[in-house]
Input
Amino acid sequence: EQIEKGGYDHFMMKEIYEQPSAIMDTYRGRMLPNEGIIRMAGVDDNIERLANAKRIIVVACGTSWHAGLVSEYIFEDLARIPVEVEYASEFRYRNPVIYENDVVIAISQSGETADTMAAIKLAKEKGAFVFGVCNVVGSSISRETHAGAYTHAGPEIGVASTKAFTTQITVLTLIALKLAKYKGTISDSEFRFHLQELERIPAKISQVLEKNEQVKEIAFTYKDAPNCLYLGRGYNFPVALEGALKLKEISYIHAEGYPAAEMKHGPIALIDEQMPVVVIATNKGHYDKVVSNIQEIKSRSGKIIGIVTEGDEAVKELADYVIEVPETIESLTPLLTTIPLQLLSYHIAVMLGKNVDQPRNLAKSVTVE
Ligand code: G6P
Output
């Protein structure tokens, strides 16, 4: 097992550090930035069906559901297709309205999650086209769907999902870009620019991973907090949810993710000097508004950990700690901002002596209801 961990103390840490290469594996052979082409068999073979979708319904559970939420912003923004993101468990029991020209995208790392599988069967019965985004090759979900694209992240052993999440976002970005190009909702130059930026993401993730010691210091400061709040807006709202989920899963600290602007409708009541608030405040996407949220937290003595773009000044002045991530286009920021949140939860859980790779009560894949 030590050998399998490749010198890391836990699979989770190994998998966090694998993200640059995992993402390269996801786009290798599919994305040709110089030619301005994306090739994906499952999408190419069904391009009419996918591009003409009146609506995309994403079904997933857990971390995969969070990747689905990120994809809602990507598909709507780039390909102008309306998206609904559903917990598979709610969808399957709700008698949902599904039209024949709906496309259902099922996202699952394991490809074995029972609720996601049941949602797929229901969508197929109602005539929808079902596209799978799975990591495990040959898994039940990859076989049950009409078409699909693998994430190619390699085996993920840690129960808390890390590289599966970022590679799911990568695949979903490629699909959205392809549909956007086909539909003409994105210009050729924008398309190429997105591909070039995506190609730079692995190196930028490596730069974020270099902040590990700094994140460890922050983890030491807040490891005994009983609660933690995560805030983000737009593309980074789902990242806030995912950051909170990671902390809950492995450290058993109660954490909530919220859209930053919703803070005033409830969570602000919780803020006092005991409350660490992780705020994703990259320079793209409502930066000024997030800064004013940070001011509100500060004036109530909350502790602020800002995830900011390199060179940031405003948040740095207000926050107790900041972690910088390199600049990129807005739709790709989740691939960078997620990384310090994974590291933060990892270090807190290790410092608290928890079983990081196999947290209590959780399973890597939930094949029963
Ligand atoms: C379990 C795992 C999570 C995962 C979720 C969905 O709860 O512990 O890490 O996100 O199932 O799994 P899937 O394999 O369908 O992505």
In short: The pocket of 6-O-phosphono-alpha-D-glucopyranose is lined by residues 61-64, 108-110, 113, 116, 159, 161, 362-366 (CB under 6 Å). The chain has 15 helices and twelve strands. The first strand starts at residue 31 and ends at 32.
